[in-house]
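Hi support team,

I submitted a single chain yesterday and got back a structure, but I'm not sure I'm reading the C-alpha cell output correctly. Could someone confirm the output below corresponds to the sequence I sent? I've pasted both exactly as they appear in my results page.

Thanks,
R.
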Amino acid sequence: MTTTELLVSKTDLAVTRVRQTPAAPLQSGQARARVDRFALTSNNITYAAFGDAMHYWDFFPVQGDDAQGWGSVPVWGFGTVVESACAEVPVGERVYGYWPMASHAVLTPARVTPSGWIDGAAHRAPLPPIYNQYERSSADPFYRADTEDLQALLRPLFATSWLIDDFMADSDFFGARTLLLSSASSKTAYATAWCLAQRAGIEVIGLTSPANVAFCESLGCYSRVLTYEALASLDGDTPSVYIDFAGNAGLRRRIHEHFPNLRYSCSVGGAHVRELGGAKGLPGPRATLFFAPAQAKKRAGEWGAATLVQRLVDDWTSFVTAAADKGWVQVAHSEDPAAAQAAWAQVLAGGNDPRSGQIVRLA
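Hi R., thanks for writing in. Yes, this is the structure output for that exact sequence:
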C-alpha cells in the first residue's frame, strides 16, 4: 500500500508538493484509515497561517529525510478503517474527524466508546482534545449519509461559529450591540452571522469585497453588507465588536482607528493570508485570538457534555438544512493529486466563487 500526501511549505503556503511513500506496517493498537473525502476552506488556510503559533503543524508531523520545511495541513472529513491492529476498531468502520491532507492516516484509537474514540498517539496528547476525537458515523448524531459533503465543508466551521456566537452572548457582547464581521462571504463568517441573527437586538454588519456583496446579501444573515471601502460610512462612535475572519492587518488598523468605542477585537481567521500581520500599537482593545476549544470546555463544564452536544446538533440541523435548501454551497470535487493542488491554490488565492465548496480525495 502507498500513502499519497499533499504537503505545503511552511514558509510559503503557495508552494506544495505531492509525496508518495510505502505504508509502514501497523504497530499493536493502531488502525489505518483511508481518507475518503475532506474539505478545503479558508479555515484550512487559517490552520496553515497559524501553524506554528497554534501548533496545527503538530497534529500530523511530516516524517522522513525530505520532511524539513514541509507541513501537512489538518482537514476535516470522513475516513474508513481499512486495516486494524486494534481489537475495538473494526475494518470497514466509517468515522468523521481530523485528517492529514493524504490518502491514508495511521491513528492510535484510545478511550474507545460506542460513539467514537480519540487518537491516543503520544504526539497528540498535548494538543486540544476536540481535534483528536473521531466519531463513529453509525452513532454520530450529526451524521446523515446524504450530506457528507456538506458535513465535511460546514460542520467544523459551524462548530467554531456557534462557539463564537455563544462566547459573545456569554460576554453580553461586551456592552455593544453592533458586530462587524470581515471576510463576510467566508463560510465561517456567514455561519457566525446566521447564529447571531437568531438573537434579538443584534446588528450584524458584513464587510466584504465588491464582488461578494450580492452573495452576502442573498444569505439573509446580515443586517447590512458593506464593502471594505465603505467602512468610513459607519458611525465610528457606535459601541461595536470586531470579529476578524480576514486577518488583514491594514483592515484591522482601520477599524480600530475608526471606532473609538470598539469594545472587543476578536481574531478568528486568516482568509487574507497575504495581508496577515501583527497587532502591536493598535488603538483601543487588544486583538484577542479566539480559541474555540476553550469556550467548548467552559460550556461542557457548565452544562455537561451531553447538553452542549445536543444544543449544537439542534442548531446545526437548522443551519445545514437552510444551507442545502437555499443553495449556499455548490460542491466541487477534486479526485487526484494535481486537482487537489489546484484546489489548494484556488482557496489560498481567495478568488473563488463564495458558493464553491472544495471536496478533495487523494485515496
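A quick pointer for reading it: The CA atoms of residues 59 and 127 lie 8 Å apart. Let us know if anything else looks off.

Best,
Support desk
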